Amino acid sequence: MPLQTILNRKNDDSNRYPLFSTLWHAVDGCLYIFRDDYKRVYLILLATMLVDLDHLLATPIFSPNRCSINFHPLHTYYAMAAYAAMLFLPKTYKIIGLGLLLHMLTDLNDCVMTYLNCPQCLNKASARELVKWLVTATNA
Predict the structure, then answer these.
(1) What is the mean pLDDT of residues 121-127?
(2) Region of residue 34 (phi > 0: left; psi between -120 and 50: alpha; otherwise: beta)
(3) Which residue, 12, 26, 57, 118, is the most exposed by fewest CB within 10 angstroms?
């Protein structure tokens, strides 16, 4: 199914509370993969959202049409390489790295959605070429 079709679908009741749904899926995943340690893993994954504190260094702090990828210090390609390298470290670091990479994927998804709705909004984005390639690849 093309990405644009997914974006144009009407929300149903199961998607009425997306944040709750996302948090619940994270708990569910932690229960399934880390049965013995799911509470600690869930808390670590939630803590990886603190990576967004680097948004406080930007001016303005929030801009609805800004792509975070490769804009904020902890959202750069170099930082993502470090997060990927963490997957090869002991368990706690693996979980942190996984959480940070999942966070980067959600931010990249946000960039793609912004691009689909307003391509000119990302004219100055440093990740514009990556976003354009993703949109082209998913719509092909």
Answers:
(1) 81
(2) beta
(3) 12
